[in-house]
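Sorry to interrupt, but I need a hand with the structure work. I would like you to pick a protein and set down its sequence and fold. Please put the record directly below this note.
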Amino acid sequence: MDLVPALKEPLRQPLKSVLGPATAKVMAEHLGLHSVGDLLHHYPRRYEERGQLTHLADLPMDEHVTVVAQVADARLHTFASSRAPRGKGQRLEVTITDGSGRIQLVFFGNGVHKPHKDLLPGTRAMFAGKVSVFNRRLQLAHPAYELLKGDTEEAVESWAGALIPIYPATAKLESWKIGKAVQTVLPSAQEAVDPLPGTLRAGRGLVTLPEALLKIHRPHTKADVADARARLKWDEAFVLQVALARRRHADAQLPAVARRPRPDGLLAAFDDRLPFTLTDGQQKVSREIFDDLATDHPMHRLLQGEVGSGKTLVALRAMLAVVDAGGQAAMLAPTEVLAQQHHRSVTEMMGELAEGGMLGGAEDATKVVLLTGSMGAAARRRALLDLATGEAGLVIGTHALIEDKVQFHDLGLVVVDEQHRFGVEQRDALRGKGKQPPHLLVMTATPIPRTVAMTVFGDLETSVLDQLPAGRSPIASHVVPAADKPHFLARAWERVREEVAAGHQAYVVCPRIGDEEDDPKRTAGKKPGKSAEAGESAESAETADRRPPLAVLDVADQLAKGPLEGLRVEVLHGRMQPDDKDAVMRRFAAGDTDVLVATTVIEVGVNVPNATVMVITDADRFGVSQLHQLRGRVGRGSAPGLCLLVTEMPEASAARQRLNAVAATLDGFELSRIDLEQRREGDVLGQAQSGARTSLRVLAVIEDEEIIAEAREEAAAVVAADPGLEHLPGLRTALDALLDEEREQYLEKG
């Protein structure tokens, strides 16, 4: 929101820098702060009061922290070392306290002289450093520090009774140095032009933007902080919702071909074939989609549904409706395994309706083609020809669908499965293959809390499937504490044998493949027979020093020779040849394999109703939503499902609490809230994937649900009245700052 030239001024420039060149360089390279406006919007993480010290007892290991504390004692020791063999080595040990705990500061060599003079008992200061352990005691080695003195009038005013802002910092730039830099540019805050319409600000009793910036960086009371945060949350929510509302408004102006199914066409014939009745939820969502398809501007709809709620069936009916209306429909899947799975299940569900142009095909039949990157040249040529001539009404494929040589006769609908796995450019490239913009249906099996949907997918209408089809069985989930109770792990493998003996099948999920392309250093120290660590998303500081994860190939071998000896065990992972992967899945689906040891390649879309048990090894390495996704692969038939979450983490750890939460509920929306609270939001405009800073600094999509919902309403009203924001120049400038080129493209294409 750099609204005027003063705020756009770079922190570092050739002839005149706002800050010292070294400070400006660190801010740019390590904090992404380039202009005065960037720095003003780098808000304090928290505040310390002079009379209230931080809890040293709660310091996190291996993290860079800032604490405010008092020196209890300081001792200078001499010692002999290789560098100082005559006992002239020096070590200064300073103990600081906050009333709740103590921690030792350590300085060595020539670095002891200044702190020895500064840090006398009774001295108060801010200290910043990385928390480590030495001789089983917490310590900060060579911390940076800033004395809190009260012997000058300015210092008294700064510190006495005032709140001390603690900024998000780096090892190269401590919080108080950032604070000093902010004080340098704070006068420029007076020139910030307000993006909120005056009536909105007045109606909600919000302070002006200059006042909010002043209060967030230099508050006198906690009420100042509350006023500032309330105002700045509204800025973030409102400006983002205006961006999304403008996107929706622009989409509504685009032309599209209305697609209405024939009453006696392909869709009706398909519905007649179904051996079951659609759930109320499936019927309701289908009506919403058909209503959108019947309009002459493109549908943009998000279909989110619980694992196993029947999203694929709803999407297929939409695709058939478009074929009925003379168009083609494409489904984009994130992996070859999933594309093949979808192709197999769609052709099975359609039967002779999928045999267009073939002997035995039904009268209304169309052709369903598969297009993946690994197909042979002849099969690929046939598929491309079927798409170009319109012979194929339905195509299911991976990103191979996006290539330039793929031409459609009349693309009417794009269905994107598991949206979060695709880059925006990929989706946009496929949408660009229609003569006019095709309708778009985005599917995800990761339940998204309402406010996240409004924030991340705010330009899409949302449909939710939260009702499981009749015949789906409940899934029991249990945590298996392998370290505390090794006999529980032995029992887990017995349960697998019992399920197989009863005629069912099992999955065992591992994080790594274990072939020669894996990092050999990570395979060191594995203990045979232990569970494999799982996961790509939830590794944290508390798991950093643990043994490396086991791998599919190792675990499959150990199980086949050990606890699952005699059972038919196969492996599945992403680096296998596509034909081999497909053959493994076909054998598993046909019941020719008892146990499938796999990576997360089975996470979405794989449907084998006879699989009833899943063992996720070292499940603490997975994120909450990923565990929920994996668990959804069992219990898909009439027999109840069982999911065993194996972990070696201690009972009191956050990882165990996370697993307990997953075991306690099958409600994906509840789990997604837990997941989000733990991971925070990332960048809601999609920048998290590219490592850029979050665009949300004070707004939290779970906590601030009410603000987001109200901001969405206000934004819709503003854009409806003034789509170009001609009468709101401050808001237009704020949008320009939020939507840099990359983000603008994200919204354009999303």
Summary: The chain is about 35% helix and 20% strand.
